[in-house]
Design brief:
With about 200 residues, the chain is α/β, with parallel strands linked by helices. It has a single domain, classed as Rossmann fold. It is built from 8 helices and 11 strands. Strands 3-8-2-9-10 form a 5-stranded parallel beta sheet, with helices on both faces. A 4-stranded mixed beta sheet has the order 5-4-7-6. It has a two-stranded antiparallel ribbon with strand order 1-11. The N and C termini lie close together (about 5 Å). Keywords: ATP-binding, Kinase, Nucleotide-binding, Transferase. InterPro entries: GK/Ca_channel_bsu, Guanylate_kin-like_dom, Guanylate_kinase, Guanylate_kinase_CS. This is Guanylate kinase. One of its GO terms (molecular function) is kinase activity.
């Protein structure tokens, strides 16, 4: 009886690309599971340890970095975030499709990991939004000032420069078309012959 390994799909794209929404919707529809990250930040009201995040103290996080437990990790706004290798490998062995919504630096760390079945199961997609469309989306949110929007657009241009490193590019148009393409990619990845083993 052949067993099918899972897929690790890394999803990147600039702020406003809709990558988090795509991942959440696909998870809610049962197409994939979200990896649970570790963080050193304090839990927000209603957040549950082991469900929303694995909440670690700064010293616990540092010890796990030292042991090489993280697939990727970064510091954001003074707090550290990371994804445990063991969690991902366990889900892949179970044949699950795991989505990771991370930036281009995090994606580079995961892509470089050669441990176990990770290289075999790895796939990535960049959500690309043309600059004018991205500007319209960021302005339409009405949550950021002009300076913040300009910074986000500059950051997006830098992230877009990493697009050639990705296997797939989803050119964003509208929410429904994006989701149709994203869900088709997940289904296609799950049928890869290379993921079948005795």
């Amino acid at each position: 009886m052949k067993q099918h390994l899972g897929t690790l799909l890394v999803v990147s794209g600039p702020s406003g690309s809709g990558k988090t929404t795509l991942c959440r919707r696909a998870t809610e529809n049962g197409l994939c599971v979200y990896s649970i990250s570790c963080t050193t930040r304090q839990p927000r009201p209603g957040e549950v340890n082991g469900v929303d995040y694995h909440f670690l103290t700064p010293s616990e996080f540092a010890a796990r970095v030292e042991k090489g437990d993280f697939l990727e990790y970064a510091e954001v706004h003074g707090n550290r975030y990371g994804t445990l290798k063991a969690d991902i490998l366990d889900l892949l062995e179970q044949g699950k499709t795991v989505v990771m919504d991370i930036d281009v630096q995090g994606a580079a760390q995961v892509r470089a990991c050669r441990e176990g079945i990770l290289p075999l199961c790895y796939a990535d997609v960049y959500i690309y939004v043309p600059q004018e469309e991205l500007k319209n989306r960021l302005c339409g949110r009405q949550t950021d000032g002009d300076e913040t929007i300009s910074l986000r657009l500059r950051n997006a241009a830098q992230e877009d420069a990493c697009l050639p490193q990705y296997q797939y590019c989803l050119v964003s148009s509208d929410r429904e078309a994006d989701y149709a393409a994203f869900s088709a990619l997940i289904k296609c990845q799950s049928m890869r012959v290379g993921l079948m083993r005795e």
